[in-house]
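re: the backbone from monday

yeah here it is again, tokenized this time
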């Protein structure tokens, strides 16, 4: 039975997964909804385990934002998570990932996505990505 209420949006972005068994395993966000996401990864996660998924939100090495989540299903290719309560910056990132790519590009200066290299990338803050 499908428990998801929100529609999923394709969202290809590299993420780092932090869980009990693995610290900082790279994964690929495959899709996202307002409630969770599916991550293509070999991270050793278990159902009902709490994980932190870090998403790059800028160009500097420290420009990562944490999306706290709980694993709700596991497949051979990756795992699905449901978000735990998100703070305001994390909620904005999720909202931006849910916007169609061209719409996100038309809002300079807002938290948005850029497509300068042909892929969806997050940029948070003012003109240079910082407040």
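seq for it, each position gets an aa:
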């Amino acid at each position: 039975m499908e428990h998801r209420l929100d529609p999923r949006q394709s969202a290809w972005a590299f993420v780092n997964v932090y869980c009990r068994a693995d610290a900082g395993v790279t994964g690929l966000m495959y899709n996202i909804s307002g409630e969770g996401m599916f991550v293509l990864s070999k991270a050793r996660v278990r159902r009902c385990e709490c994980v932190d998924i870090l998403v790059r939100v800028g160009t500097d090495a420290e420009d990562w934002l944490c999306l706290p989540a709980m694993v709700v299903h596991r497949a051979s290719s990756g795992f699905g998570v449901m978000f735990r309560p998100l703070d305001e910056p994390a909620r904005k990132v999720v909202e931006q990932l849910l916007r169609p790519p061209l719409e996100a590009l038309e809002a300079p200066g807002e938290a948005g996505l850029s497509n300068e290299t042909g892929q969806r990338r997050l940029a948070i803050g003012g003109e240079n990505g910082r407040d």
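The domain at 9-83 is CATH 2.40.10.220 (Thrombin, subunit H). The chain is about 10% helix and 45% strand.
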